[in-house]
Amino acid sequence: MDSNSVSPMPELAPIAEFDKSPPSPPNEEVPMDDLPPPPATISGSDTKKMKLQRSRSYESDDHERGACEWCEYALIITLATILLIGVSALTIFWIFYYREGYGWADDQPEKQFNLHPTLMVAGFITFSGFSVLLYRICRCFRRIYVKLLHAIFHALAFPCIVIGFLAVLDFHNKKGITNFYSLHSWIGLVAMGLFGIQYAVGFFSFLLLLICNKGTAGFRASLVPVHAAFGILTFVLGVAACLTGLTEKALFTFGPERYSGLPDEAVIINAIGVTCIAILAVVMYILSRDKFRASETRDGHIRASVDL
What we know:
Layout: H1 44-98, H2 109-113, H3 115-137, H4 143-175, H5 183-211, H6 217-260, H7 264-288, E1 295-298, E2 301-304
């Protein structure tokens, strides 16, 4: 072959021209463009689905707890209603069956006295008890309607307490009995005084609500805990007055020796007292359960009712 036809060999680059920089360290950040895409991505909706699936196992427990709470609420409110109505019915039965009914005449002072236990039980326990529990019973009513019913039950209790007090005061004067000497009378006077103050404060607050709702909201809110606390105290004192009054009436009617034999009328009197204690226990239990409180939604916020 002709030596001139052979193509010349390409010149090799000198070794000094190669990149002599050291390799990248292992912890150097690599651009994300050079990495392969992830095998799968989880979107926001998929995340919510996963959380929903995880929480499904607890939904049955929540429903069971909700059903148990509603059963407890229905049973305890029904029991309170039966007791509050039953104690007045039992008192009326006692007066008609054993005490010859009612009256208001100079020749029938005993029948006039019979108005005292009946009206005091109705005012201090039945009507006041319903008034206290209205914010737990009427959970589906508008707040203004519950307040109105609360005022109505207090308005029903007020004449009962006043007439019952006047009946026993006139009876003592006719019989020549000293007034306000017993523990029963002292507790009753304190209970009546607190009830009168509560009625006046509640009526004034309700009047402010009707006249100027927004302008008096702060003042009325500050009255709520005080009104609630004294309302419970008044109810407790009313029950205590009824219990001491029933005991006093039983001792005066039968005497210690006959009372210890437990005649039929004494059983009825004791049953009325035990019912009063049961009412107090049930009412205090209902008031202690925050889950029984009615809640209402305003401006996207849920607010629990704490009024009495």
